[in-house]
Amino acid sequence: MIITSTAKKYAHALYDIAQKRKQAEQMLAELDSFSAAMEKDADLRNLLVMPNSKEKMQLLEDALKKLFSDLFVEFALLLVDNNRIKLLPQICDEFHSHYDFMHSRVRATVITAVPLTSEVEAKLKSQLEKQFHAELRIDNVVDPSIMGGFVVKVNGQVLDASVLGKFKKLKIYLTQN
Amino acid sequence: MEVKAKEISTIIKKELEKYQLETNFEEVGEIIQVGDGIAHVYGLENVMANELVEFPHGVFGMALNLEDDNVGCVLFGSEKNLKEGDVVKRTGKIMQVPVGEALTGRVVNPLGQPLDGKGPIKTDHYSPIERKAPGVVARQPVKEPLQTGIKAIDSMIPIGRGQRELIIGDRQIGKTTIAIDAILNQKGQGVHCIYVAIGQKGSTIRKVVKTLEDHGAMEYTTVVMSNANDPAPFTYIAPYSGAAMGEYYRDNGMHALVIYDDLSKHAWAYRQVSLLLRRPPGREAYPGDIFYLHSRLLERAAKLSDELGGGSLTALPIVETQAGDFSAYIPTNVISITDGQIYLEPNLFYGGVRPAINVGLSVSRVGGNAQIKAMKQVAGKLRLELAQYRELEAFSKFSSELDKSTQAQLTRGERMVEILKQNQNETLLVEKQIAFIFLGTQGFLDEIPVGEIRRLEAEYYQFLEAKYPQILTTIAEKKAMDDELQAELKSAAQEFISVFAV
């Protein structure tokens, strides 16, 4: 997902406050659940982006207060008030990566043709942890189109060890020389 | 032709045996937006300014704008197959081109890829296209001449090795011709030439290459070309590539001459790229750093100090003016950067004075030190006499009513103008130029009808070569005129004029 600089600023600000109040983990969970709800529920999305009025804010505040912490409610209302609520999925993503960065954790996406077995995953994890000197979390994405092998994406870096990638490189080698 | 499937498969097998696969972590980003030869890329967090990046389908680009949340890249290739979301890879290399002797005689594009069908360029030397110009300590004043073989230039607007001399004038009045003549005259002088065609018509470039080939000048010349239909980024980097190629010779104690034809088109290309990258426009919509664009390019022309090998890079930038307006933005910029200018005038050109150099407006600020002494001795009076002639020219219609001395000045001036005329691609050795200008400044031609002077010139060279070749060789060797030599040249001239049949 492309994260704009505005989303980054909101996410970092939220992290700073949450960290001070020792609510960062809670914020993670709340952001996740709210952005998942936004994605699923078209009615909620419509309500959030419709023109602001006192009644709407009051309604939202009452509804959110029952489910979320005070900090999150304030934050969500601020976003609605500033017409930035559309950025929430981005903010959520950026919050995650910023949280990981601050706790020297790295998220790695591993694309494979068939689901990873736990044995292979552990091996890959230890190897990657050595390389990046950080605690690693692996998200496994299954994509049969790569045919075999795997593709690892970490922090904007890519290791393409898939059969498809090898074929592509071979094609360039054979046609250019 | 019969194609054997087995043969093909053996070739492929051989290739495959050589093939080694390397898998490394690569830094990537993805295209947010692409169009007009520009791509905005998300990601590529650690990309450097001017770094080469790789797009899919073998298209390369250069990172120009490093912004908060995206990287603005220019594309060196077709954007046809690129789309949003495509993966862009870092190469970790700053934009560079092949340099060195392997490039002589070749026609290449601004990326250094051959366009002449003579096979790949085999060189181990690469150089970044943007390099820092040599500092003050690394330089020394211009002191050796760079003979262009054009009488009007070598006598009055001398160019030295390491100088930057602007050629400026309207379209179609011989700017490129002067530059090409300068290249032709470097044959056997140990000067490597680079002709950079910036956004030129394909037919024009073809003609230039043909002229160079016909005169055997491709043996020491490289042509860097960006066509008018190439994307603007090619045109933008073309002069920098040419400069990088010339710098190789400069830094290795050799001499090089690079011609940028022309910098107004370069400025247009940079304006296009800048506006598309959303940099703010300034005067005439050029970006704010348009002056720096040309000054950092032309500063790379230099004469290096003896400790660094004494190599030189001479630059002859060309700027096209619109309807003689050389006080426009780009011309004034480049005039202020260079060490002088050769100003070509349409009136002179259509009046038959070719090369159409306006001697009054043309100057060479540093070349005087580089002129050989003999030329200084004979041509010293030339500029003055021409200036006086220009002042009196308006009165030439009433010449019969003027006093004797004015009339004498007018006759002398008319002949001086005639002396400086010269045909395209007919460059002259400096000793011949000196001998002929000597005729004019000493008044030997005053009695000759103006219409006969061109014929006289040709016959005079034949006469000298046949009867007094030692005079020419002495001038070439001594590079100065002593009394003895002057007397010798005078008597030879007298003998020639007496036998010359009008």
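qc> Chain A is about 65% helix and 15% strand.
qc> done
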